[in-house]
Amino acid sequence: MKKTKRSTVKRAPKRGHYDSETVHKILDQNHICHVGIVYNGAPLVIPTLYGRSGNQLFIHGASVSRLMTELEQEIELSISVAKTKGLVLARSAFHHSLNYESVVLFGKGKSITDTEEKRDALKSVSDHLIPGRWEEVRQPTTKELKATKIIAIPLEEVTAKIRTGGPVDDKSDYKLDVWAGELPLIEHYGSPIPDENFDSKSKNLPQSVLSLLDS
Amino acid sequence: MKKTKRSTVKRAPKRGHYDSETVHKILDQNHICHVGIVYNGAPLVIPTLYGRSGNQLFIHGASVSRLMTELEQEIELSISVAKTKGLVLARSAFHHSLNYESVVLFGKGKSITDTEEKRDALKSVSDHLIPGRWEEVRQPTTKELKATKIIAIPLEEVTAKIRTGGPVDDKSDYKLDVWAGELPLIEHYGSPIPDENFDSKSKNLPQSVLSLLDS
User: Which chain A residue's Cα is nearest to B64?
Assistant: First the structure.
């Protein structure tokens, strides 16, 4: 990754990571990224789905959408992804914190126009959310591909930030009779809810869902 | 809430909500917001903690931090908060979706400089993360308050977006032998991990943590 002035962590520099492995791992565990652009001279941040393949991030949207129409002009963007991993309870209000994993990136997107590249990028988004699902479902038609814009963003100027562990209190506070520690926040998938309109012969859960529930 | 051109949902307008109750509910269920500003002419999106009190959002940070130093100049900002509530599995790749709850806001922040107002705003951030915790811990000192900047952002130009429910497939796809439905994504707190440096007499969990585990 390219470490630039704006992508270098200044506060708590030990939390900063600039290797692909860490960046990819964090990106692969989240669903929503927050895309920031300058729109009519003011900042605009929009949450949206994404996918990743190698060192590229893909976002997609309706061809007519404001965000897609702006991004295909290869304007500067910044993207943030973050997940809370736990609450950090200290003995003082001041030293409370959050355990988290985040990625912030800078760059410019590029519209993917080639039909086969588009299909591959959409498969990345699908695989990102539900590995194996792509092969189970009806593939996109030419019309559907036309209705979708895809922007590829290189993962070059990227910073990952991670905080783990318990609180770091002031020395003089350790004697206080206050419980301190971490409260992990955990995500899990609940029971699948079949579509009411489901009327196929097989009501068995597909392999993609079984794998997600196992993971 | 003030509905403006840029804060009005154009795609899937039925998902847009502009009432305080919905906006507050979504904000109160998340920890991290993504703050976008224009910095050196380019967009910059930074994830950070926040709190809310009434119709104000508070973010805080070290007095020397880049984001805080920019925001106290009352520049334009945009903030995005989003949570994945579940995956939506359709019969076609195209109609896959995400159930989510998001808030996007526009506005300008204002630095809080009055010591008592600062204390109240920090309490809002603390209450937002762990209700009741503020009263259990050592209060901020004057020095700690000085080391912290707090920006208040009015919740005026705000949009909430919510997607719920199962997939909406093309009519002709309902006959396909493909499982379709929702896979809810659920968050819960894990077992509290006491700080290794904990040596107080009482090792009982505090009321704030018990309440979070109950909620």
Answer: A11
